[in-house]
Amino acid sequence: MDREKSKYVIKVASTYIGTVIGAGFASGREICIFFTNYGKISYVSLLISTMLFMCIGSNILVLGRKLNVNCYGDMIKDIFKGLAPFVDIYLFIVYVIISVAMFAGAGALFSKYYWLCILITAGFAVLAIINGLDGLLNANIIIIPMILLFDIILFVYHIEFPVNLHNCSMISLKSLFNSLKSSLIYTSYNTILCIGVMAPLGNRIENSFISRRGGYIGGLVIGIMLFISNYCIFAYMPHISLREMPLLDIAKTVNPIFGWCYVLMLWGAIFTTLIANLFSITSILERFVPSYLQNVVFICMIIIISLFAKFGFSNIVSIFYPILGIIGLIFITYMALFPVTTRD
């Protein structure tokens, strides 16, 4: 594989990772809820989620090319057939709500400068969205390696820590079932959220080797980051499970300066998820807005969405996720069967 292909594979993988690791992932809250709370069996669930992320990520990219997808609605139409309009509208609303939640999260990280942080985040988001997929790719290739570096530092620091597995739930058939169900829901709603970026990106990649390799590497790195975070959280169980941002609290115990650096890293994770959701929204609006007005409309849209951050929609998002998980389960089932028909 030549240098140009390798560089593009890394960009694709970074973009995939960036769509998945939002504030919930990077702060450790989602990982604690969906994996760590189930004890030792969580590592089995992590392995399954990693394989699904690898398989489905690469297949979304390949399918995006084969279906000539320009926005996520094209793929939804092919998968959900007659139900596509309802799923399409629902996802559009979810993308908007999650974008609002990301703005709110960015402001909450620096509560003393709430609106200033939101304004700065909105400004960077405008720059990324105006540049389209290139802006998204370039933003992720800078931010994602930094996030991965912070995770590795945390892991190395805790590698000799006693892991309190005895404080977690014991393995049983019921805990195994619940853990696997939880990991499937987690994988499914993250997968369905990332198609807004991944499907159009796949259509842009002419070489299916790059699509598959980018999807595999992206999914594998997501799995490694999940494992690292799960391992670090285990070292502080069970009391850490009650914290809103477990990994941030853990980072502060390492060193106060490292803790503040981790806050900036969290902002980066929020930003990558934000621009992925905004890109999904703009890919729909492009079909209805004349090209000469698109940048103005996109900027106004970002400003309006950021203003709603003051209402704090994190609770609303938690209500939408179960439904999103069901839609995602249908989607990942389809994608699991898809490789049979996509070999070049």
Which key terms come to mind for this protein?
14 helices, disordered C terminus, single chain, mainly alpha, 344 residues
Describe the structure.
This protein has 344 residues and is mainly alpha-helical. It has one domain. The chain has helices at 3-20, 23-27, 29-34, 42-66, 72-80, 84-109, 114-130, 132-158, 173-204, 208-234, 246-254, 256-285, 294-307, 314-337. Helix 5 crosses helix 6 (84-109) and helix 9 (173-204) crosses helix 12. The two termini are 18 Å apart.
Which blocks of ≥5 consecutive residues have pLDDT under 50? 340-344
Strand content: under 5%
Number of alpha- plus pi-helical segments = 14
**Rg estimate, integer Å:** 19 Å
Query: Helicity range of the residues?
Result: over 70%
Termini gap: 18 Å
SSE arrangement, N to C: HHHHHHHHHHHHHH
Could you give a short account of the major beta sheet? Answer: none
